[in-house]
């Protein structure tokens, strides 16, 4: 489904409750965590879903209403009299115009990153299929996220250990970034996953670019090959489920890494198709 095909109605008004930078000040990437309060009690969402944020575009581009999707980064609060709250993770982005070659600020991301507590924004949704937790608590979960793609896994892992509880299967989080300064929720400033490090079943693996100043791609191949036998055994286990979240290009990078792992692009294509047909490989890409 194309971004322009997502409906812009119904719309809800949400107030910014907080905005916090969660990447180090010296990191190239500025990523902020925003908490929004929706004005309608009937706004319901599930883990892994996204909300649309509507922003008027620049006048020089016709001031068209622009919508971008952001994955909810926390679990829903218990229902009650309080209004729904949504946590979003937003990276301040720029882009290069294909025709002029000029650099422009991303409209929606910069708009959100500049919002202050008390400001109001217009949202839509929720959209997308939520991640489904397997019924069997002995199932193994391999969670793969690039950059802000870790956001839904923050909610997913929290749900598994704090709300489902007594999880017996392995939960491996593989998170990629260009450098340690750009790791989200797993850095010196903010490590929300630290609360699960004492869980015998949980493990977090970092995939970092070996030369971040050169803007190299994330080193998925190193991280995956380092655990190749273990990961292959997990994929062969019918009780293993793989969840992937992030920008669309992550798909090509992972396919290349897993093709190397399984011996060839053809063997990986067959294996991936089998996993997807069995509901054991789920992608949340945007």
Which secondary structure elements does this structure contain, and how are they paired or packed?
Layout: E1 12-21, E2 31-38, E3 50-56, E4 65-71, E5 85-91, E6 94-96, E7 103-105, H1 107-113, E8 120-127, E9 140-146, H2 151-164, E10 171-177, E11 202-208, H3 220-226, H4 228-236, E12 240-246, H5 250-262, H6 265-277, E13 281-285
Parallel strand pairs: 9-10, 9-12, 10-11, 12-13
Antiparallel strand pairs: 1-2, 1-8, 2-5, 3-4, 3-8, 6-7
Q: Based on helices, strands and strand pairing, what is the structural class? A: alpha/beta
Mean pLDDT: 80
Q: What summary fits the major beta sheet?
A: 6 strands, antiparallel
The number of strands is 13
Q: Helical proportion?
A: 10-25%
Query: How are the strands of the biggest sheet laid out side by side?
Result: 4-3-8-1-2-5
